[in-house]
Design brief:
By secondary structure, the chain is of the alpha+beta class. The chain has 2 domains: about 325 residues, Cupin (Jelly Rolls, Sandwich); about 210 residues, no CATH class. The strands form 3 sheets. The chain has a 9-stranded mixed β-sheet with strand order 1-2-11-8-13-6-5-3-4. A 5-stranded mixed β-sheet has the order 16-15-17-14-18, with helices on both faces. The chain has a 4-stranded antiparallel β-sheet with strand order 7-12-9-10, with helices on one face.
């Protein structure tokens, strides 16, 4: 079979490929931090391990164990989803949108592999996958996406791992590691590895803090999307045919969304609706369109035994060249903190509940560097090269100081120098029992709730208020109906930033009064931030904040705001 390669595919630039040394490979997060400044400019990159992959027999055994985890004595099986490749020109209102639906079919690994191989033979004819270059297979794929539909199957988001369960990270030295599964790059452990902020997530989140398995066939695809909460992802190909990946760097994310909106959906959806549509993971657009309009797009081919890293806010998509099995998990380096707040706002804007509180992760990470901690938490022990630790610590500390200092300024402005109310755990427990918030779910610094969306959330941006929040007092004579939009009217709880925005808008007509609340450990937190600021000599000029305990009137006000 001869396929003439599309010229635009040949001119599509490659994402970088990295080959760490054994020494570099011993710490996955430190290594990703090391390459991130350069690699993130491509959105994606490939990492080729310096150690051997796990034995295929071990991989298959672990896969089967994961597939039968719910019923250990049953045959290991999985279900698939059907994906459309190509489109009906008369039926598809938006040609970039591909339908996906449950197949309601169940396969063993061998059954699915046989089906995938038969499909490959039907597509390739007398040629074999290995006879064709990767670019020729890509050309075949994008031709198929522009023709009458064919249908493939894909098993995605299967909880589990094809890696062995291993002992505590660092228990095996890198020179003693026999295969990848014994290293720190084992995806069962990497989300909570040293240096990843996800180590401070208190609850297990499938696919985020623990890996998921993906079993594909030729032309099974993953649509354009970003990771949940714009986190990093680490993807490993265990066995089978390769995958082609396409990545968009963060600097081009807005331009990419605009191309999706205007070219993919004919300009008939808003920017927010575009983000919501992309979050459905059904948008398949050829990089050719991006290439033509000047949106940077990079490609790479991932083979068995190789990792792909996707960076925060980097849109990515791709497809399989044949039967394969991969798995993926999320991580978060300190660089993620720079855009985590915007990611949380975007997530709230499309009505998705937050998976994590980035403020909780920031605070826990920063405070873990302190030598003395309150009894409510445990200081994680850090190890590793001093120079890597220093860079990581300084970045986290700077972001932490900036956040607490901004709180200090806003509390002073909103409270006109009056005291901020400390919300004790006792009062939170009372509110949990008398309002719509489930018991035990609050903005406790050291006990992340099972569902962060049930915390005190700002009615303007949707961000879960973590250490501080503000409540608009209803006794003001200001006509809020005429002054504020619906987002401000909907509830009475605001983050400090949006409380300040309300203050600015209403200052000319009398202003408002706020009930300012903080976590019971906030005085200690602020003291630590001041100490860090002095250590880094950042020149912050802090205002002394007074604190008072919550009274009955305050409690009624909070309860009213929550019930509203």
């Amino acid at each position: 079979m001869e396929e003439e390669i599309f010229p635009w595919l040949e001119s599509l630039p490659l994402a970088p490929e990295y080959k760490p040394t054994l020494t570099e490979f011993q710490d996955p997060i430190a290594y990703i931090c090391k390459i991130e400044k350069v690699a993130s400019k491509f959105g994606i990159c490939k990492i080729i391990p310096p150690v051997s992959p796990s034995f295929k027999k071990t991989v298959i055994s672990n896969l089967k164990q994961s597939l039968s985890s719910d019923s250990p004595n049953s045959t290991p099986t999985f279900t698939t989803r059907i994906q459309e490749v190509g489109f009906h020109r008369r039926k598809n209102f938006h040609p970039v949108q591909r339908p996906v639906w449950q197949s309601f079919k169940t396969y063993t690994l061998n059954q699915f592999e046989r089906k995938a191989k038969k499909f490959e033979n039907d597509i390739y004819g007398s040629s074999s996958n290995t006879d064709l270059s990767k670019l020729k297979v890509e050309t075949m794929y994008w031709k198929a996406q522009d023709e009458k539909p064919i249908y493939v199957e894909y098993a995605n988001d299967i909880p589990g791992s094809a890696f062995n369960e291993i002992m505590e990270q660092g228990s095996i030295g890198i020179n003693s590691v026999k295969n990848l599964g014994e290293s720190a790059w084992n995806l069962r452990n990497v989300a909570r590895a040293k240096g990843s902020l996800l180590k401070f997530v208190k609850n297990e989140i499938l696919g985020v803090t623990s890996p998921m398995i993906y079993i594909g066939m030729m032309f099974s695809w993953f649509a354009w999307h970003v990771e949940d909460h714009d986190l990093h992802s680490l993807n490993y190909m265990h066995i089978g045919g390769c995958k082609t990946w396409y990545g968009i760097p963060i600097d081009a994310a807005v331009a990419f969304e605009d191309v999706i909106r205007t070219h993919g959906y004919s300009g008939k959806i808003s920017p927010i609706e575009t983000c919501a549509t992309l979050a459905q993971k059904t948008t398949v657009m050829s990089p050719e369109i991006l290439h033509k309009v000047g949106v940077p797009c990079y490609r790479l081919v991932q083979n068995a035994g190789e990792f792909v890293v996707t960076f925060p806010r980097a849109y990515h998509s791709g497809f399989s060249h044949g039967f394969n099995c991969a798995e993926a998990v999320n991580i978060a380096t300190p660089e993620w903190l720079i855009l985590a707040r915007d990611a949380a706002i975007r997530r709230a804007s499309i009505n998705l509940a937050p998976l994590v509180s980035h403020y909780q992760l920031l605070y826990d990470q920063a405070l873990s560097f302190c030598t003395s901690m309150p009894s409510t938490t445990t200081t994680p022990q850090r190890s590793g090269p001093k120079e890597n630790l220093k860079v990581e610590e300084d970045l986290v500390k700077q972001i932490f100081i900036q956040d607490v200092f901004e709180n200090n300024e806003l509390i002073n402005i909103l409270g006109n120098g009056s005291s901020i109310t400390i919300l004790s755990q006792e009062v939170l427990d009372f509110l949990s029992s008398t309002s719509h918030i489930p018991r035990g779910q609050n903005f406790s610094l050291f006990n992340e709730p099972a569902n962060p969306s049930n915390m005190f959330s700002c009615v303007r941006c949707g961000i879960a208020c973590y250490a501080c929040c503000s409540i608009l007092r209803p006794s003001q004579a200001v006509d809020l109906q005429s002054c504020l939009d619906r987002n401000y009217q909907r509830k009475k709880i605001y983050c400090l930033q949006h409380a300040f925005e309300v203050e600015q808008r209403l200052r000319s007509i009398g202003g408002v009064q706020w009930l300012l609340l903080c976590h019971q450990d906030y005085p200690w937190i602020e003291a630590k931030a001041k100490s860090m600021a002095k250590e880094l000599d950042d020149g912050c000029i802090w205002t002394d904040i007074g604190y008072k305990h919550v009274n009955d009137q305050d409690t009624k006000m909070i309860q009213s705001a929550l019930d509203h």
